[in-house]
Amino acid sequence: MEAAASLLNGERAVVVMFLSRIVMYAESSVLYESLALVLLAVCALVVETRAEAPGRISSLKTRPGASCGVMLGAVTLPAVLVSKMIQQSRGYLLGEIELEGLLATLKLFYVFCHGFAAVKVIQHIIHTFFSCASIGEALLVTSGLIHYFGDMIACTVTEICRRLVSSGLVSAQFGINRSEISTIIQGTLFGLLLFPFLFKFLVRIWGHFSSSFNLDSRKYEIGRALVFYVFLSFIVIGIIPMWMQFVQEFSRHPILWIVGFVFSEPYKRLSLCIHWVGLIGVAVLRFYSISKHSKVERILLRKYYHLLAVCMFVPALIYQPMFLDLAFGAALAVFLVLEIIRIWRIWPLGQLVHKFMTAFTDHRDSDILIVSHFSLLLGCALPIWMSSQYNDRPLALFAGILILGIGDTMASMVGHKYGVLRWSKTGKKTIEGTAAGITSMLAASLSLLPLLASTGYLVTESWFPLVFAVTVSGLLEAYTAQLDNAFIPLVFYSLLCL
Q1: Which of 186, 234, 203 is nearest to 385 (CA)?
Q2: Structural element, H or E, at residue 153
Q3: Please, which residues have CB within 8 angstroms of residue 124's CB and are 6 or more apart in sequence?
Q4: DSSP string of 250-300?
Q5: Residue 408, exposed/middle/buried by CB under 10 A (0-12, 13-18, 19+)?
Q6: In 10 A of CB 253, how many CB atoms?
Q7: Per-residue pLDDT tens over the stretch 372-427
Q8: Distance (Å, rounded) from C-alpha 154 to C-alpha 160?
Q9: Please, which residues have CB within 8 angstroms of residue 29's CB and are 6 or more apart in sequence?
């Protein structure tokens, strides 16, 4: 019994509950995928227990204070995909969608390339951004990047084959029919993530050039900044839109398409932009001042941004979901550019951005990479992006906003002020905080359902699945030592999709 209890600690027990719920919903159409998910969980559990065995010394420099997290990191994204398959199978049986298939050989080739790329990417992440992530967090980031951009590459290859081959084998796009917004976001993110590798090469050339002409450090920094901004503009305005127009039929240049999309409903969308800018401006100035002159803990200060996300995103998601999709992509692109500027200390903004961002960091961030704002934005955006093709559970769209903006915030604030009973002797999470998070999130979900029904959504959620999803997500927040902004929204979203 003691061995079993040590094997299934709090985090692993919650993961088992999460996976059991998914497997229970699996029908014959996704039976093999569900069994593969169970096998993956068992293998990940074996690896995690061996990695955390006493006396085990790892050469990997992972984030201090975080557990290994292999099991949670390995199964989270595959569990999301299986949940989406169950949801799509339900839609197929109801005649609401049509499923597209791929040749088995293409599937095998894609899986092989996916596995090879995943090994290389996780090695690069752990060794380049050492002490910035646990193994589980690196696994989640790796699987997400490989799946997302593997899909992009497959889409490109399919479009090339479609243009070169006249047969009907490759006439359809890879997997799904993409909207213009999803193509814009995918291309922009890929270009910005690829940009640092290309810029690093250009910096070496500029370094040899400046050495040859004996330029002082001031001129070198200005020249390097000029190279950065010119090359970034070339990538964003020239190269990325070329790919977008290649794989998607745009009536005009993608940048002009974005301008036309925003001004197609100028009153609603520009009003939202003004609302967002006003909230962000006031919040940033206020919270930055508090962080400099107050003794309020940073973990609580950051929860105000979670509440800010609720005020910003809930109205937009109800009344302007497509515009919110595009806005999330634009915000993520801005975050990536600012982080690149901060890491490379690009003149004249690099030091200013670094000083500002470090005012809101905690033990999960480092000087090498600050991830908290990325995880908050992606935690809210991913459930919305993943529901863009088919979704018969409208509450799933709000999974990230509810769990981060309401549940996580209330759990931290109540637990910090009133918490007495701790879940473990070494942890800070309290039972009172967890209960407050679960209760508040359940109340917010039940309050949101009538509003969704009144705005035209077909509400299909029932009591027990909702209570189970909220409870499991709340318990995971209590037990996990991983970056909860990244994992909990995906777990909550997966359970809501069922």
Answers
A1: 186
A2: helix 135-164
A3: none
A4: -SS-HHHHHHHHHTTSHHHHHHHHHHHHHHHHHHHHHHHHHHHH----HHH
A5: buried
A6: 14
A7: 888 889 999 999 998 877 788 888 899 999 999 898 888 888 888 887 888 877 77
A8: 10
A9: 85, 89, 92
Cα radius of gyration rounded to whole Å, the chain: 23
> Residue 441 pLDDT more than 50?
yes
Strand pairing partners for 422? 430
Locus of tokens 């515009």: 323
Is the link from the previous residue into 489 a cis peptide, with omega within 30 of 0? no
Structure tokens at 311: 């005020």
Return the amino acid letter for 201.
Answer: F
Question: What CA–CA distance (Å, rounded) separates 318 from 452?
Answer: 7
User: pLDDT tens, 212-258?
Assistant: 777 778 888 888 899 999 999 999 998 999 989 888 888 888 999 99
- What tokens were used for 263? 């001004």
| pLDDT at residue 349, rounded to an integer | 86
- Residue 8 vs residues 42, 71, 490: alpha-carbon distances, Å: 12, 11, 21
Q: Give the Å distances, CA to CA, from 195 to 187, 280, 353, 435.
A: 12, 27, 19, 44
